[in-house]
Amino acid sequence: MLEVYNLVVRYEKNRDAVNVSEFVLQDKEKIIILGPNGSGKTTLIKAVLGLVNYEGDIKINGKDLRKIKCELSVSTNLEEVYSLLYLDIKDLISLYMDLKGCDEENALKLVRYFGIENTLNKKLWQLSTGQRKLVTNILAISSEGEILLLDECFDGIDPPRKAKLANLLNRYEHSILITTHELGMLKYLGQWGIYFMFEGKIFGKIMPATKVLNAGIVVGDVDNAILKVETANKKVSIVPQAGKPLKDFADLNILYEELIMT
Amino acid sequence: MTLKYLKLHIKSMLSHPSILGWGVGGTIIWAALGAFIFSAEFLKTLEGSSIGYYVSALYYTAGWFGCLSLYSFSTLATGLMFNIFYSTASVVYASKFTKLTPVKYYIYNVLSSLLIFLVLSLFTLASVYGFYSYSFKVNLYPRNIMLILVFSLIAGLFLYLLSMLLTLLPIVLGHPKAVTTIAYAPMIFAMVFSYAQLYLYFTGIEEIICLSPFNNIISLLAYGYTGMNIPITFTSPEEGFINIYTCLTSLICWLVALSVINIYIIKKMKAVSPYEFF
Predict the structure, then answer these.
(1) ipTM score of the complex?
(2) Is A10 helix (H, G, I), strand (E, B) or coil?
(3) What contacts B164, CB < 8 A, 6 or more positions away?
(4) Cβ atoms of A25 and A175 closer than 8 Å
(5) pLDDT tens digits, one per residue of B97-129
(6) Following CA atoms A93, B102, B4, B87 in sequence, which dihedral angle do they give, to the nearest 10 degrees?
(7) Contact at CB, A98 and B4, closer than 8 angstroms
(8) What pairing do the DSSP bridges indicate for beta strands A175-180 and A63-64?
């Protein structure tokens, strides 16, 4: 279980990159955090991994993150955590599976599943954006962590492989937290819970995700809203069968620009 | 378990282009310069030398061997540290969420690096022996290869730990931009102190040679090469000799101090994005 209380991350004085009063990821729960670019999604994951300075409390399986050592239950696809040594992908898989105490054959099976065997003899920086994302997703998923933290895991990946990845994540038996701005992926992850993230703050949750697909965003405070979001610019409501349907937007960035920033 | 980390670390270093380029390529160039270009002036003074042509040539060769080893080890150590500072996030993640503890990370890195230092030392030894014997037209074979290898390990360890300290300290203190400047300090010191011991007169201030870890390394490696007392200045052996045991004791004290500080700093290490270094 992942618990976050009163979390504040700042890169600049007087500006919170993340400000979350409470967020809990239960055992075996699957959550999507939807937010536009720059909303603080990646910073939230970095904070949970101890990669940025933060105020507040983060607990993983009841243990304070600041005191955690050798906790194998957490895995991520953040690329920056996979640069321990100057290695090709095959050796990188071998190294991280060993460090996680997992069988590297699990990862190699996924390499074959996604059809990216041609990347095995290359370095991570030699791959395309989509290939890099697939490789780091594979490293995270095959670590079999109880808490899987996937940042923008669909970024740059072609549609058939996105569907394969979504299928794989639906079958994953433990907790998953995905951050994304791709609304189009919700159709594959219909039973997951959804939070929205704007300007460092989390709003939610909505359960299941299909509710969001059939809803629309309306400016202002609407009574029958399934979720109300207050940003610095505007107050908006997510309302069933009203406003401009969310499923018409492939990307949350466009929606954010059109409805909230204007 | 994490012995795989050790194996893959060695593999990654042996295939790293910058380590091979600066470590091996740079050593060959400097060895050739010392043997065929810088030796021209020294050769003119050899005929009138009070200690004889062979011993003078041997001291000159041993001095260059010590300096070249210091240079190649410092470039290798600097290269290794650049690898570390590009991977701070990985180290923080690995120490929290994998089996790799900070102490294991430190020990495995040091062990695998020492093996590479050993390989580089043998390579430097072969280059120096070949080039200088050819240049001086005498067989200037190293007297005690085992002692050279032991001193090479100590020297490599010192430079590795020093580079680690100079790389990690600015990160821990919150000034990562300083790393790109400070990380080159071991290479610069190696060049300055090498030149000083090869060509400058230290008579009266021998303490500098005895306490400077860079000169300790040069003197110890030269001692292994010649098997004789080491002069304060290699090109002027008649000026006096260094106490080799003082050099060894001084270097070991430096090693102990650096080890303690580094383990403390690794535990305090923060993740830094590579963009923050520029």
Answers:
(1) 0.91
(2) strand
(3) B81, B84, B258, B262, B265
(4) yes
(5) 999 887 788 788 888 888 888 888 898 999 999
(6) 40
(7) yes
(8) unpaired
